[in-house]
Amino acid sequence: MSNLSNFNPPRTGEAKLTSGFFAKRVDNYVEIIKNMENALLEENNAARLLNFGIAAGKIKGKFYMNEWSDGDCYKFIEGCSNQYAVTKDKKILDIINKYIPWIEATQEEDGYICTQVQLTDLKRWAKPANHELYNFGHLFTASCVHYEATNDDRLLNVAKKAADYLCTIFIPMNTELGNFGFNPSQIMGLVELYNITKNDNYLKLADIFVTMRGTKIGNGDQNQNRVPLRDEYKPVGHAVTASYLYAGAADVYAHTKDKRLLTALERIWNDMIDRRIYITGGASPVYVGISERGDRIQEAFSDEFNLPNRISYNETCANIAVAMWALRMYNLTSKATYGDWMENILLNSGISGASLDMTRYFYANPLSHRVNERIKPTFEQYTHVPNKRFYTFDCWCCPPQLWRTFTGMPKWIYSITDNGISINLFAGSSLNTHLSNNEPVKININTNYPWEEEVKIDIIEAPCNGMNLTFRIPSWCNNATFNHKPIESGIHNVIVKTGEILNIVLPMKPTLYTANPFIEQANGMLAVKRGPVVYCLEGCDIDNEISIDELAIPVQAEFTEEIITELPYNMVGLKSELIHRPKGNKIYYPVIEDDVQKVSVRFIPYFAWANRQESDMSVWLPRA
């Protein structure tokens, strides 16, 4: 196969979800939007559209938390714009159009726009934790998506004016502000703005924000400032800020071809997937801790192989940010590892933060939960541990992150290069685009993946001489077929023409996984996957009222597949019989023989936990 590179996402609206799991997640988009809008208008929510209304002089009030509120409002607008692009539903446009005038009126004459500064006594560029660049970055991205979806340039003009202002502050590189890339959504945003406007200063500034890392230590590893990015060899610190940095650096590399940048990103990635990532794709175990270099860290990557389950943090935003980085690396390198982990995250830890109807949320995503032994949020250590899903919250960044991810899923599914298309994920969807030579391309994918194994790809229109089609057979599948012939896992490239129908079959069976013994928290334990989906056991799916902590999985366990009827989307559940292993009541006790009694249970997809009554939950269970 050829090693194709420099794939890019389609323009907003060129691809859309048509059927299957991801399409169903946004079927109720009007309810989701109304629910989110109402939360963003709540007085005491931590992300508030109200702050723009106050700054614009349209409503009375004072600024209310958090410093990153503006950015989370922009993410909401981005998600709405994604959905408008494919539905053309005027109800969505009416909602967006309520708030663009507020944003326009908030912007100051020189281009600065951050309500946490404008409505308070904070000074511009006083400290990195004020999240100014985070807010700018999400403005840039939302404006590009909104412009592509609507051809309305009002928000884009706000973004360009704001970016021009940033150029006056950070070009040439401002060493005094060297640690101000705190939560660097602005790198991705600037590259997206460059792609639309072709203003070279925006790309130059994005590169400067990458190069700034390590020029001023600040809080060190917490925000990736102890080592210059091009010299780094492992992921460190806050997992959102790190993954946004790595994703943004990948965007910069796509244009500059700075080999040191790509080499560093590959080193960091390999260290992460070899030592610091959960089976679900979660990547930030640490609430509060110390980095391997001695810096205080929060919401962070862990020491190597330190992956606790019940107290794992795994912020939803971080999980999705790692997937964003993976997509960019996949587009740059066509290496299967990036696609495999991207898919793993998007079907597990990346979406477990949302209830199945997308109206309630989790911030953290542990792999174990106990109703009667909840982790108590003492000091900073477990502030966001989930006991039940929230509507409003004191850090409301994850709901709009989930929203823009689900509505933006078509851009994850397809990528485009000069001479072809890449199908990055299998989902019921369609693509209607043009290659760089203006040749039209139309593709339909019909599948109910990941619940069913068959994928049909209909090439409705392709260039007369054919085109390259790249697709990935996931690493978990060892007996796939392509057009009824065996095909190995990995990246494949074929030439396709108009009228062809491609058939891919990815046989799935429940499989037991174990962990590297260095991961002490999972040593001697097993987890269940079916295809790309990680499963968990909830207490309400255990017969005979036996505790989840009195169960063990036999290596020879057999599983029966069934549709989970009490939850939506016709998801596949896994029935099995586990060993009853009675436990003592003290911290240590003599071994108790396993009971001959078998216990009937049903496993459900991990992302679907906490959608019924509150129950005990585990991904990992002891090996019998």
Walk me through this protein's architecture:
With 624 residues, this protein is α+β, with helices and mostly antiparallel strands. Among the domains are: 415-505, no CATH class; 510-622, no CATH class. Helix content is 33%, strand content 19%. The chain is built from 16 helices and 23 strands. The chain has helices at residues 20-25, 29-40, 50-55, 69-87, 90-106, 115-118, 132-150, 154-170, 185-197, 200-211, 239-256, 259-275, 316-333, 336-346, 398-407, 409-413, and strands at residues 15-19, 286-290, 296-300, 368-369, 414-417, 420-423, 428-434, 440-447, 454-461, 467-473, 480-482, 485-487, 490-496, 501-505, 510-513, 525-530, 533-542, 551-552, 560-563, 572-580, 598-605, 617-618, 621-622. The strands form 4 sheets. Strands 4, 15, 16, 17, 18, 19, 20, 21, 22 and 23 form a 10-stranded antiparallel beta sheet that branches. A 7-stranded antiparallel beta sheet has the order 1-7-8-9-14-11-12. Helix 9 (185-197) runs antiparallel to helix 10 (200-211) and helix 11 runs antiparallel to helix 12. The longest helix has 19 residues, at 69-87. The two termini are 43 Å apart. Residues 1-5 have low confidence and may be disordered. One of its GO terms (molecular function) is ATP binding. Residues 16-409 form the Non-reducing end beta-L-arabinofuranosidase-like GH127 catalytic domain. It comes from Vallitalea longa.
